[in-house]
Amino acid sequence: MKRVFIKTLMAMVALAAAGVASAQDKTIKFANQNAAGHPIVLGMEKFKEIVEKNSGGKIKVNVFPGGALGSDQANVSAIQGGTLEMASMNSGIFAAQVKEFAIFDFPFMFGSGKEADAVVDGAFGKKLHAKLEEKGLIGLGYYELGFRNITNSKRPINKLEDLEGLKLRVIPNPINVDWVKALGANPTPLPFPELYAALDQKAVDGQENPVATINGAKLYEVQKHLALTGHQY
Fold it and tell me: Is the overall model pTM greater than 0.90, yes or no?
């Protein structure tokens, strides 16, 4: 990926460094649903390295990948409650807090990564971050993860009709449920850490995620077919 979290890291480090002079020793817990080795988790580990070094050890960062601290929704609640400092997650999760975040989950919203970057890093993306503050959340930046694609264990997807009847895991939010249903498949909302087992046990037939996530979670071990649909960014 061309933008491996640089803008987010810079924003985070600037925020952390600003408080170093007056800070007492502090520990930041940083959560994510992806497994160790995923690009987002690698970015979190780099953040840990930079913050601990630049704070002279006054700020410690503990990274919790793989849903170790619960689901995305649980992480949001924990940040609002003050028991978790940081998390990285799909933007659609925040639609429960600020409904405008749901716009990012509309299929085929962006024609390219460059176009998406211009929107999320521009005035619109900043406007949505500002709305999060009313909910006790502070947006620091948008991670790069690429376009989402569909995998399944039953058949190749070469045309729309091939989706009919497939039971697909989706991110737990209304837009994802609706578009999968509209295409004739059966949407199954499921937390990401439960996905591999659900695919392995045939509780669901398929799922949709960026290639980096499919690879990082080794979903290819329990999925036979990959369609590069690029349906969401």
Answer: no
215 is written with which tokens? Answer: 């690879």
* Cβ neighbours of 195 (radius 10 Å): 21
Structure tokens at 156: 């190749």
In a domain, 111, yes or no: yes
pLDDT tens sequence across 179-198: 999 999 999 999 888 999 99
Per-residue pLDDT for 227 more than 80?
yes
- What residues contact residue 168 under an 8 Å CB cut-off, 6+ apart? 150, 152, 180, 185, 186, 187, 188, 204, 205, 206, 207, 208
Distance in angstroms (rounded) separating the CA atoms of residues 214 and 68: 19
Looking up residue 216, the CATH number of its domain turns out to be: 3.40.190.10
> Cβ distance 169 to 188 under 8 Å?
yes
* Residue 99 structural domain: 6-133
If you write DSSP's letter for every residue of 130-156 in order, what string do you get?
HHHHTTT-----------EEEEESS--
Checking if the pLDDT of 154 tops 90, the result is: yes
Residues 182, 107 share a domain: no
Cα distances (Å, whole numbers) of residue 124 to 35, 45, 95: 30, 29, 15
3-state secondary structure 184-199: CCEEEECCHHHHHHHH
pLDDT of residue 173: 81
Q: d(Cα 8, Cα 16) in Å, to the nearest integer?
A: 12
**How many distinct structural domains can be found in the chain?**
2
